[in-house]
Amino acid sequence: MSAAGLRLRAFAPTVLAAPNPSAHTASLVFCHGFGATASDWQDLHRLPGLDHLKVILPQAPLRAISINSMQPMPAWFDILSMSHAARTQDGDEDEEGLGESVDDLTQIIQTEIDAGIAPGRIVIGGFSQGAALAMKLGLAGKLRLGGVVALSGYTPLQWKFMLSPWARETPVFVGHGTADSVISFSTGEAGVARLRGAGLQRLEFQTYPGMAHSACLEELQDLTRWLQKVVPSINRPEATGKPKL
């Protein structure tokens, strides 16, 4: 690997146990955005009506970032240009770094599976760059998960984004603000159109007038409703098989 995007230091994820650990039957793995930290999303642990949901907040490693004069920042992969989210040509994105982060998250998910949580009860999500990572893993990954959440994000590697066979049936929640100046609303909207054009049948797209590159109460309420539908509370089953990724 070249110096660009070089991973300098990795960190353990923040794990927030289900509010009712004895009822833990589903898990949400949620990835923060570029330059941010896992702690930014600890409030996901407090979403109402989800006492059975364990929240795992991975922390991106420090990487040398091209657009930051090679200075290290927390990032799931390198950012080669400020217009990366709208690029569609080969070579515009850090495919190697993205693949590394997919592998890291796959290990986290496998740990949940080994603990007895079925793949279909695990949701992968993220914000901004973390949303791009979540879409790559959840829609083009190795295992059929319970759902994908993408907040203020975009579809990575657009020129070669190959959906997994089950992606068309995977529940997807996409939220984006109309006043986003970092990843434009039009970029998010175009990504949704591409995914729907590829045949995704369970994609919910919610827009938030006036919201910038952030989250809002209405969006979190919509996400809560969606999670309650996709991974509802159930009786804890006896451990069965533990499929490997």
UniProtKB/TrEMBL annotation:
User: What superkingdom does the record give?
Assistant: Eukaryota
GO MF, any single term: carboxylic ester hydrolase activity
What reactions does this protein catalyze? S-hexadecanoyl-L-cysteinyl-[protein] + H2O = L-cysteinyl-[protein] + hexadecanoate + H(+)
Q: Which Pfam families match?
A: Abhydrolase_2
Task: Please describe what this protein does.
Answer: Hydrolyzes fatty acids from S-acylated cysteine residues in proteins with a strong preference for palmitoylated G-alpha proteins over other acyl substrates. Mediates the deacylation of G-alpha proteins such as GPA1 in vivo, but has weak or no activity toward palmitoylated Ras proteins. Has weak lysophospholipase activity in vitro; however such activity may not exist in vivo.
Q: Which family does it belong to?
A: Belongs to the AB hydrolase superfamily. AB hydrolase 2 family.
Q: Which residues form the Phospholipase/carboxylesterase/thioesterase domain?
A: 22-230
Which classification does the entry list for the species?
Eukaryota, Fungi, Dikarya, Basidiomycota, Pucciniomycotina
Q: EC no.?
A: 3.1.2.22
Name of the molecule in the record: Acyl-protein thioesterase 1
Keywords, sorted A to Z: Fatty acid metabolism, Hydrolase, Lipid metabolism, Serine esterase
What biological process terms from GO does the record include?
fatty acid metabolic process
